[in-house]
């Protein structure tokens, strides 16, 4: 039975349901003689007679009646499997693991894209993983994460693609009692004014692109930063700022983080200090769900470029 052509089972069911070769042939879109021949081929393969050939049409034998339900179940399972494979290929089913850095989640672009993806592909099991940029690069390269939103560009390994989603300005984050901001509303500060400050930065190993961008901007402003602390997560830098341990430079979208004791100020300098939000994914094998999310990112960026301002 395992060697029976599924096409023959479809022919058999059509004849069984129509009880007539001519009607079954019309339903299948083939001529009657080839259909009759294929039914005989099926009977020969099974070693049984499936129909009584009568003047008024075709009547199932006992063996034929026994085959009907099994044939329907087999074909239904095959159709279900084919449909499932197609849906996975088209990104409408399956599983998608999306990674993101903690800071990326605070830019409205990321949750909006995730929400739109879920609405367009409700049958995809979406798994979200938060980690550092460095860890996410490794996870994507090894296939443990399908696609990830990370900070900064630092090149990718073999087989991993990277695309800049947006750039946003960076802000200086001060303790609320810092002399530069205490008792006055300050709209901006020159980066060079931070030359003597103790800086709290995101650990370079966790996000080399963003770290290096800060060092480069400081150098362009005429000083080498005094890095007092390196935090494992960008959000951790704000907690250290609130504790009065120093000043930090963070993407503008992080001002949405309501941490008591932190004041944000715009930064000016000869080199624009901006934070990239990038998307990375593994080139092969790329699932349909991964392609669908990448398309959603590009579509949303094109539709509403205003969201790319931090």
Automatic annotation (TrEMBL):
Q: Name one GO molecular function term.
A: DNA-binding transcription factor activity
Residues forming the HTH lysR-type domain are 4-61
Give the residues annotated as coiled coil.
Answer: none
Does this UniProt record's set of keywords contain Transcription regulation? yes
Q: List keywords of the entry alphabetically.
A: DNA-binding, Transcription, Transcription regulation
> Per the record, a Pfam family?
LysR_substrate
**GO cellular component terms listed in the entry, alphabetical order:** protein-DNA complex
- Hey, which family's this protein in? Belongs to the LysR transcriptional regulatory family.
Q: What is this protein called?
A: HTH-type transcriptional regulator BenM
């Amino acid at each position: 039975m395992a060697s029976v052509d599924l096409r023959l089972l479809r022919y058999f069911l059509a004849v069984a349901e129509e009880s007539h070769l001519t009607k079954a042939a019309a339903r299948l879109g083939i001529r009657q003689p080839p259909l009759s021949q294929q039914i005989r081929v099926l009977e020969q393969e099974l070693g049984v007679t499936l129909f009584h050939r009568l003047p008024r049409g075709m009547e199932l034998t006992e063996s034929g009646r026994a085959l009907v339900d099994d044939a329907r179940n087999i074909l239904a399972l095959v159709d279900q499997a084919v449909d499932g494979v197609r849906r996975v290929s088209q990104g409408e089913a399956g599983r998608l693991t999306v990674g993101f850095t903690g800071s990326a989640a605070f830019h409205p672009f990321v949750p909006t894209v995730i929400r739109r993806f879920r609405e367009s592909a409700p049958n995809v099991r979406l798994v979200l993983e938060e980690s550092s940029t460095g860890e996410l690069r490794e996870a994507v390269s090894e296939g443990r994460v399908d696609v990830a939103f990370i900070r900064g560009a630092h090149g990718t390994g073999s087989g991993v693609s990277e695309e800049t989603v947006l750039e946003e300005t960076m802000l200086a984050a001060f303790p609320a009692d810092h002399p530069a901001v205490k008792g006055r509303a300050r709209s901006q500060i020159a980066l060079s004014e931070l030359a003597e400050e103790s800086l709290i930065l995101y650990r370079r190993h966790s996000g080399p692109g963003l770290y290096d961008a800060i060092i480069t901007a400081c150098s362009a402003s005429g000083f080498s930063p005094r890095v007092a602390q390196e935090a494992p997560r960008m959000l951790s830098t704000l907690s250290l700022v609130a504790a009065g341990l120093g000043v930090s430079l963070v993407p503008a979208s992080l001002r949405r983080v309501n941490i008591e004791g932190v004041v944000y100020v715009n930064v000016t300098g000869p080199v624009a200090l901006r934070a990239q939000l990038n998307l990375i994914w593994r080139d092969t094998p790329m699932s349909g769900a991964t392609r669908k999310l990448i398309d959603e990112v590009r579509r949303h960026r094109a539709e509403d470029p205003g969201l790319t301002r931090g």
